[in-house]
Amino acid sequence: MKIGLIGGTFDPIHVGHLLLGEWAREQFSLDEIWFLPAGMPYFKEDKKVSSRLDRWAMTRRAVADMPGAKACDIELMREGRTYTYETVEELCAAYPDDEFTFVFGADCLDQLDTWRYPERILAGCRIAAATRGASSDVEEMRRKAAALTAKFGGKIEVMEFPALEISSTMLRERAAKGLPLKYLVPEAVENYAIKQGLYGSPLQEEDKPNPVKAVILDMDGTLLDTEKLYIDVWMDLEENPTPKLEQVLYDVIGVTEEETRAYFAEVMGADYPFEALRTRMKNIFAQIRDAGQLPVKAGAKECLDALYRAGYKLALASSTYREQLEAEMKAAGLFGYFDVIVCGTDISHSKPDPEIFLKTARLLQTDPSDCIVIEDSFNGIRAAKAAGMRPLMVPDLKQPDEEIRGLCEWICPDLPAALATIREADH
Questions:
Q1: Most buried residue, 31, 188, 305, 420, by CB count within 10 Å?
Q2: Are strands 371-375 and 214-217 parallel, antiparallel or unpaired?
Q3: Sign of torsion, CA 397 399 405 410?
Q4: Is residue 338 within 8 Å of residue 314, measured between CB atoms?
Q5: Helix orientation angle between 187-195 and 52-63, rounded to the nearest 10 degrees
Q6: What DSSP designation does 131 have?
């Protein structure tokens, strides 16, 4: 594939960045445009920059509806200073069959020979230097490009681009004055900046008595209608299914695989063929998933999409192992909505211990009291409450008893009702 790269601090990402990507895609017949939020640009070390999470979240939301575009976190994952040559070399190593074009502003032609290892950048990718509208001296830019390629090798092309007097600095200043960013950034980016209180905006929602900044969801039984399927498959595999076994299967909903294994040994006996049945059950699940038949809860995608675009941080907190979780969520078309994912392999204690939710809040950089947790299980509700979060239950196999009703802030019949409840609670 031919891939265009656009890097930047993206604090915030705006329509100028998106138009630059679309212009490059058309002019150079690129298959995709990747937007790369910077980790820590060396030239901004003395300036206040929004967190990596916030800039990543805004970038993902900005490109969600842009054909052929995606966000790439390669620079965000790198510790310390961010250098372009490292990015290019990492991408070339990871995608040896692809061709890369790095799109920069016109000023790169004046600065390139001061960058670290420009010859290594040009060895791995073509550079496209974008003009700044009619005021640019295109011929002079071409002369500079020719001089740089003579010095460093590689290929630099000048890309004619209309002047857009938009900058992230200007947008931050507008937000600080309480001015809207409408039409200057995608709506989902503006919603996120307001919801998360970025840029000191008077529009932010900190004056609300109970602000909601993040929504954390469970997977099985909440987003995927798999709890009953799990029990039915296991019971079908069992040669002698009993009510005792069925109760055990209900009891282990929402706990880690290690704890499930220990509980089976305790209740069903040490000689119970747990591993063999577990392996067979996973294989059947994989076949169902790969056939596109994994059941998704009604309204799950619509609920996630609405919350994502409204500016909430979204997280998935599930006791399921990461490999299985990612495969199932990708098959269901829900994986891309989450800013943070915490799974069974990331924690020492499963629900009802609050560890999974407290770790999720830390990764979201959000106070637990500003988080709503959507759960279907009793242990999930207990864990959310113990974490100091606001539990919202959407019951699945078991209806809440008196204890659970006392722990829940809300109980909703389904995900569309949960979405309506969150909207009402946050206004």
A1: 188
A2: parallel
A3: positive
A4: yes
A5: 150
A6: P
- pLDDT (tens digit per residue) in 149-193: 999 999 999 999 987 789 999 999 999 988 999 999 999 999 999
Q: Say if residue 357 is in the same domain as residue 416.
A: yes
Look at residue 107 and tell me if it is in a domain: yes
pLDDT value at residue 41 = 61
d(CA 11, CA 175): 12
Exposure string of 371-408, with b = 16+ CB inside 10 Å and e = fewer, is bbbbbbbbbbbbbbbbbebbbbbbbbeeebeeebeebb
Give the whole-angstrom CA distance, residue 136 versus residue 421. Answer: 53
Could you count the other beta carbons within 10 Å of the beta carbon of residue 23? 19
Residue 285 lies in a domain: no
Amino acid in position 209: P
Q: What token pair was written down for 86?
A: 């490292």
pLDDT of 42 reads 60
What pLDDT, in 10s, does the model give residues 82-137? Answer: 899 999 999 999 999 999 999 999 999 999 999 999 999 999 999 999 998 777 88
What is the distance between the alpha carbons of residues 72 and 395, in angstroms, rounded to a whole number? 36
Rounded Cα distance, 188 and 113, in Å: 37
| pLDDT score of 173 | 93
User: Residue 166 is which amino acid?
Assistant: I
Please tell me whether residues 131 and 255 are part of one structural domain: no
What would the two tokens of residue 106 be?
Answer: 């016109």
What would the two tokens of residue 218 be? 């469970």
